[in-house]
Fold this sequence. Notes:
A: mainly beta; 2 domains; five-stranded antiparallel beta sheet; B: two-stranded antiparallel ribbon
Amino acid sequence: MLLAPDTHPIDRPPLKSTLSMPYTLTPGRAAGVFLAEAKNRRLVGARCVSSGLVSVPAQDFCPATGGSEMELVEAPETGTITGFTQTAAGIIATLRIDGADFDCVHRILEASFDELEIGARVEAVWAEETTQSILAVVGFRLAPGAPVGEVRPLQHAAEPLPMVPYHLDLHYEHAFGPFYGRMFDEIGTNRRLIGVRSTAIDGALLPPREVDDISYTKTGTWMTVPDTGTVRAMSVIHLEFKGQKEKPPYIYAEIQLDGAVTRLIHSVKGIDMSRASELVKPGTRVRAVWSDARTGALSDISHFEPVPDGDEAASL
Amino acid sequence: MGAPRSVAVVATAQTELRSAWSNAQHVDLISSTVMRLLRIAGIGLADVDFVIDSGSDVLDGRSISNCGFLGAMGAHHKEESRVEEDGLWAATYGATKIAAGAAEIGLIIAYSKPSESDVSLFYASQVEPFYQRPVGFDHLAASGLQAQQYIRMGGSEADFAKVTARAWEQAAQNPFVDIEAAPSEQEIASGEMVAAPLRRHMMARSVDGCVAVLLAGAEVARGMSSQPVWITGMGSAMDNHAFPVRKPGRLEACEAAARAAYNRAGLDPRSASIAEVSGSSAAGELMVLEALGLSKPGQGFDTYSGPTAINLSGGALPADPIMATGLLRLADAHRQLTQPKVFGLASPETAIVHAAGGVGMQTHCVVTLGV
Lengths: 316, 371
């Protein structure tokens, strides 16, 4: 299984990659008011008008009945531990805020795991700096004998916070595998583009793979292709967007390398960009311009450039 | 409209489950699995009417990752869709298409390479972002809280260690699970506390792997296989997203999914020969067994000495290829029903297959099988 033909074991370190995802989260009315009131050090809950059940922190829907007519309330800062665990993030507990009908989760502070018990009374610990986040309450601490608080109508509620900026960074280490591994090794070591023979059509599949997509038969032996090819499609990119590698305008083209049955996407440069769509079009002959870097990535080819008429004939 | 047609599992194939397939890409694992499945089934890709696959964009590190895997899956210019749940859901989707008469042969694939990403971030991305994620609530915390609730129902930390040790012993005998040395009960019971009262081995170990299953309508299935394994019931259900609002100590969504499957199959779970279940922690596995009706609440531990063969594969604790775990349970149950002697089973007739997903097992899918 997974043996690429004529290949020594590939031992490339994995490809490190990070996906940085920016978000603008919309909290909605209930969470929006909760977050807006956090700076006033008021805990906001919500009572379902039809069921009478109270959620703290505030929710837009009743967790039990799904009722959507909710009136906001001000919740007390005391409650009871209903469950607890300890992870690398600290002590996390389920809590029942006094007057609420549902549990919530939060941190337990200033206590060791062993002194906690279910039923223990707790009180909120407010952050010193005001913040429009659930972390305005840093956590809860043990408060033996704390009187049981009551839920009250919320007077003069703040406008809901309309948006919360957020981002998520996801980190990856992708394996290359025997086929991509060999291809990138050849690019980095020998500046050679290598694919595998298709068993369905006469030509090379790039990137190489175990199975031919179209015929679903096992692919054949390795096949080197030159770094020249023909543009089959192109686009001039004018739009700016997140994650972009180059400043517009630039050309992305589908290039069919000579001898390949697949197309490679790369940029085409070295031309007068004001005449881009005239100078680069389907059928235009191009050749790779290699960068000085030898990292074993497709970016070792800096870009492709058009081959001037007559150049190829002269070199033959 | 006629009655739904019978649907059978006719063949399965899988890779070995390893903590990391560091010398293979997703496509390498997928193409080798699917090629082997077609060889086992003795058919070509032209015979396959549709492909349904399961995987996670967040785990895979690319959007709509199935689009990049189409060629390896054999889905070129075929009807293909992706289920962003465990592969067992994909199997129920495929079985429904065949039962409805819309297709004859369906290829179900699930793949996972959690070794390439950070599993804690995968779960964190599923947590509610305003009230829960900032305080550090995650899948680990949910599992720890769940285990504490289960102890209040009658379970014990000692049971968790025994369940975990048994799972690893079973997995060590499973040729598809790569294990260097199974931890002893003592090592498990004294392991690092990761989500009190759960210790390291009591949480499911993420592994890489791929599994593929071929489903067929009744007539075709009888022609393809001398031992078709019939899908007799299916059910799935989802609990409240907010963990603290779920019923403590019970998995009500699992109970609902099982009820739907048993009603369709006319199956009394206590008569089942085999159960292959996916618990994301030792406590979770016990709670699943109870929710499936294999024991009374709080007595899940007794199930292992009962008449139903539980997780002969080892289950999810030693090998959890997230998104493929439940479909592997289906492949395991299929092997046990068709090769009972290999597993020391007399003449098994029925199996219960279970998959779970989400933070603290929010979602559940149950499939019943019969021969």
